[in-house]
């Protein structure tokens, strides 16, 4: 294991969970990005909250006529202990913080997860979940096309969303 020291960065807040885990000997996630583009992150946030965005020469079109990401996913922490997946604990936390109880898990910390879609999704989406369960980008595509009853994201849209997730990663 590589020895890690706080002197390697200017401030503790610059340490991402992914970088600390990597320094402790874990593999970097498939979706790992060393940095993010703020302009793309803003576009990604707009895609998530409004379901459509424009970027440079790209004129965005609506991802789904039915749902935006935030119809099913909160963007904030949903429990005191984010490793506790108990839905009653989640509901109690959300209720006490006046937050909606959504069908999907929160996007808070999604960049730092290694698994997406639990076994319940196999019941509805079958083998489609196979390519999405361990890969964040594929999970986003599956959600856009099937969960939201929308369309496949264009490359620039997916890139923008991934930049947003990177910007919001846990530190």
How would you explain this protein's 3D organization?
- The two termini are 21 Å apart.
- The longest helix has 13 residues, at 38-50.
- The protein is mainly alpha-helical.
- It is built from seven helices and no strands.
Tell me briefly what this model is.
The protein is mainly α.
Annotation field: number of helices: 7
Q: Rg from C-alpha positions?
A: 17 Å
**Topology as H/E string?**
HHHHHHH
User: What structural class should be given to the helix and strand makeup?
Assistant: mainly alpha
Spans of at least 5 consecutive residues with low confidence: none
Task: Describe the secondary-structure layout.
Elements: H1 17-23, H2 38-50, H3 69-72, H4 87-96, H5 120-125, H6 136-147, H7 155-167
Can you give keywords for this protein?
171 residues, mainly alpha, 7 helices, 0% strand, globular
